[in-house]
Amino acid sequence: MKDVFARLASDFLSAIVFLVIYLITDNVILATSVAVAGAIAQVIFARVKGRELGYMTYASVALVVVLGTVTLLTNDPRFMLAKPAIAHFAIGAIMLKRGWMLRYMPPMVVETAPDYVTAAGYAWAALMFALGAGTIIVASTGDLKLWAFYISVIAGGAKVLAFAVQYVVFRLVVTNRRRAAARA
């Protein structure tokens, strides 16, 4: 779990840096330049350390460079604010693969409720698409405080809530099915 949070923080570091610098300085050019340089420096640092970088890392850096360049050319922060939406859409598309969640579940859940795991995978994909659309809507306003609230509280909270609901549902389904199997 710690590794997952470290990767997420790494993937969203440029957006966080952009937001912090922009809020402090109100300078789009400075915030974007530092975010783009930071994203490139992350890749260089990882390569120097001999760490293998995944597809998502390269995609994230490419997005930062492309959206950062558009932000610099237009002097409009909304392009950088849209970056998390693209990540949500990409992750949602990956989650459309049938059974993708099965490898992340404990064997007891996989053996007892694979149908629920598959349905949960599609529910997660739908959540990612909804959060991506919400991010674009909020980013289009250009309101950084609203965007920061949406990304941290709404999007983050929705994922935590979805995980908690999924845990409770899986626990109930597995318990009920195991009891029913024991009675039979």
From TrEMBL:
Alphabetical list of Pfam families matching this protein: IspA
Keyword Transmembrane helix among UniProt keywords: yes
GO cellular component: plasma membrane
Regions crossing the membrane: 12-41, 53-73, 79-96, 116-141, 147-170
Keywords: Cell membrane, Membrane, Transmembrane, Transmembrane helix
Superkingdom classification of source: Bacteria
PANTHER family the record matches: INNER MEMBRANE-SPANNING PROTEIN YCIB, INTRACELLULAR SEPTATION PROTEIN A-RELATED
Name this polypeptide is given: Intracellular septation protein
Organism, scientific name: Bradyrhizobium manausense
